[in-house]
Amino acid sequence: MKIKKFLLSESDIPKQWYNIAADLPSPMQPPMGPDGNPIKPEMLSPVFPDNLIEQEMSRERWIDIPPEVRELLAIWRPTPLIRASRLEAHLKTPARIYYKDESVSPAGSHKPNSAVPQAWYNKKFGIKKLTTETGAGQWGSALAFATSLLGLECKVFMVRISFDQKPFRKTLMQVWGAKCIASPSSETRTGREILKKMPDTPGSLGIAISEAIEEAVSDKTGKTRYTLGSVLNHVLLHQTIIGLEAKKQLTLAGEKKPDVVIGCAGGGSNFAGISFPFVCDKIHGGKIEIYPVESTTCPKMTRGPFAYDHGDTARMTPLLPMYTLGHTFIPPPIHAGGLRYHGMAPLVSQCIVEGLITPRSYDQLKCYDAALVWARTEGTVCAPETSHAIACVIDEANKAKKEGKEKVILFNYSGHGLLDLAGYEKYMAGHLKEIRLSDSELCESLEVIKDFPKVKKARTGKW
Amino acid sequence: MKIKKFLLSESDIPKQWYNIAADLPSPMQPPMGPDGNPIKPEMLSPVFPDNLIEQEMSRERWIDIPPEVRELLAIWRPTPLIRASRLEAHLKTPARIYYKDESVSPAGSHKPNSAVPQAWYNKKFGIKKLTTETGAGQWGSALAFATSLLGLECKVFMVRISFDQKPFRKTLMQVWGAKCIASPSSETRTGREILKKMPDTPGSLGIAISEAIEEAVSDKTGKTRYTLGSVLNHVLLHQTIIGLEAKKQLTLAGEKKPDVVIGCAGGGSNFAGISFPFVCDKIHGGKIEIYPVESTTCPKMTRGPFAYDHGDTARMTPLLPMYTLGHTFIPPPIHAGGLRYHGMAPLVSQCIVEGLITPRSYDQLKCYDAALVWARTEGTVCAPETSHAIACVIDEANKAKKEGKEKVILFNYSGHGLLDLAGYEKYMAGHLKEIRLSDSELCESLEVIKDFPKVKKARTGKW
User: Fold this and answer.
1) Interface confidence (ipTM) of the complex
2) Using 50, 70 and 90 to split pLDDT, how confident is the model at B413?
3) Which residues in chain A have Cβ-Cβ distances shorter than 8 Å to B376?
4) Which residue from B229, B351, B401, B417 could staple onto B93, CB 3.0 to 4.6 Å apart?
């Protein structure tokens, strides 16, 4: 029998996270306060616990994973690396396609990789309650799962469009004991103000972030903190166990290195998780094509500028240097809720600026089409976000066929779609359409950032 | 780190299925025709392909698994054996609890273990289309998955109450290219007649089976056959890979044998899968307690007689010797749809008669309670059916604590509940109640079998 699955044992769970900030050719530009001055760690203290702020600011290449965190990660890790041999046969490609299966976590995605350490560090710091936002519901479920394991309270603001499209995500969070409400909500000042102006808004991650931060910082006991499921350095750091495990597993599979690495990218966390250990190789001379894949309906990497912008709509976060569509941008209500964020993680953005990775964008129809090909060959139902990676994988496998090249393609199977079947149903019934954003729409949404401090023009390298 | 997961490699997937019919102390009583004579293999030919009829009738102890079937099973097998150490700690029990995680299959349950070989044998026999029924939707999804892999047509009759409660199960089947309709339907004579009499019926597996058989046998080209997801000998046979793998894995875990083996039981397939290899040990002198767990709302094993009865409402199947509540019994609409079948597999029934296994029944409230304990300790969301096994496991672990005994408890985690969150939602909102069936209700439903041939009084052994 041809071996298909490459498994590691619990002792193979990485003992350290990889921090790409130590290796980037140009130094990262700092987060800024509204006054145009770099923010200091203590300014973040009301929002995050100090131990995570330290990770956020760290430039150490390797950061130890506490043994207790590894023990919790072992509930579902190491995740399998699987050869997509049935898809290969279907495409008649000479490419060898491998996927890292992050859908096997209890919450169904890569998100618990960061939810568990975040909950653990907060608990260690004496925090009793965590707040957060969630788009598609993947991050909210992951945090509900993690807080359930660690005995913390949890409150999740879920973007209304996803809350309505995916009612069972809320139930899932409740099963783990968390509270989940639709955002914008009447429970925060930010939410109430937005509801007054736009009572029928589908909501956005930017709005939900504002609400969750407001809820955290307004707890007078000081025992509540906010958590974010993507974008920030420490979140991307936690996800690098994906790529570190995948490296070991590719060796087990007899491969020297991948030629192509692909991940879908909303805020950047699953993409960074699979790719950063390979970006490191590329910085040190390796030849690898690396593609973050976004939705054409939220095209910050392929059509937005690299600029300073807030992470949230109510401008509660510092200004971050990132590819952005403007913090008030509200994307069309596609089912890939995790890809509806207006900005891209600063670390991923910096990799784009440096020329280390090359963003791509795909329309939802092509992605659902890829998802059905996947379900009928590899057998599993992927998340709508993940389908963007798969659409790109299929294009790359077809390219390899045209070129007659035996390429090794690695991608992150970031989550399953068992709670996203409403989207599949609409697609199969022909109710979804291609969505094109005009240049003028995008320009208009960028008005809000025009007076912000400018990023330094960064050197773009040749790799 | 304490090891929690016991994994096997693809080469450990069993090469043979275990047929308990070869080892039962008393011979099985034959299926009977309506005339009271044992049915002959050729009478089943319009319904099943000859190669599966041969398996159904076989008394060989070991039956080879074709290499092509093993290759397809390897898409998700071997499944992990996992130590439920967080549940143990929560219960403060000296028992060591292990579960075989069958939820990892693409369809989310143990059902593909039989769907894949059934589809393969049918294809080998030249069949182009399969029909079936499904209760909770687990079997229908599994067959849709299997036919998708093998390029066969598939039509699923889904019990109406589940069709309405679990709309996304239908979508899942469609993703794999199958057709799924609510039963009773207007597409068969049986369905139309029942709808005329009871337009608001929640349906039952018995009705759906009648419809699926009718659809298969009325195809004049002879290229359609019917498949069943439980009850029959060959289905239980296919599931024995669960217990065979678990045996190897218990050895890896350093355990000589389980003291207690538990599985929920609707038609009997997942229970048989985990337990039959251990029932074999018990027949040969091993000391093991073995519990099939049913719902109190469909209590054929704990409150029904062992008798000849039809497998379906319209009496299209032969008479089978089994624990039954009568083929017209329609259980209350609980969310554990897979436990709503009126009869128990003849092989499992025979094990009860022989005293090899001891049936238990649990009410849905206690089971959902167990499911929440499970989600908040072990981290995953189980199917409502599986929660019945978990409720029994918790009772047994508490008993071990009371007795101060280091028992080894093994159970089958037959499926995840990610498509069953509506039931959890109702439970958490306090909308579910305990359901008690009266003796007179049960007696009444047994009226329909009173003129059938009687089973021989079997010897009950002491084990």
Assistant:
1) 0.93
2) very high
3) 148, 176-177
4) B401
